[in-house]
What does this fold into?
Amino acid sequence: MFGAQIIHQHERYLGLPPLVGKGKKKAFHQILDQVGRKVAGWKGKLLTTGGREILIKAIAQATSMYMMNCFKLPDSLCNELNSLMRKFWWGQREKERKLAWIAWEKMCTPKAEGGMGFKDLKAFNLALLAKQGWRISQDTDSLAHRVFKAKYFPDSNFLEAQLGKNPSYTWRSLVVAIGVLKRGLR
It folds into this structure.
């Protein structure tokens, strides 16, 4: 009647989904699409192993970093991203299967321990969320701390916070990282 458009899908804000409902994999599927397009565009057979290593570390693993700072990505999405990188590393194309000479978990160990230094995306996601939790717990004057404290832990500190009623997905993600943060505290 007024000429306003009906929005069927919420747009993204700063590249992040504004609402993450029950379809978490769908909300973060953009990452898989981006990495998949980039990996498909690379000519893996023309690159040296050093070139493949740099592309995986600098592009494929860094693409999802911004979202990992704010949200816990679904484990299935992390597994699919790891699979894309693993296939690119070993030179697999589409339906082709090639032999992986070393387990991906071994490839994700630091170079000093005999691995390649690739990131395990699940563990890296939790580490980034724990870093955000540390910032919230230490910088009590920040806007993020004040908002989360008012809504989720008004009578305690961040490390003692509970999930609460009707939490946002950002808060759910940070609560998962509290355990990691507690294990790392000294």
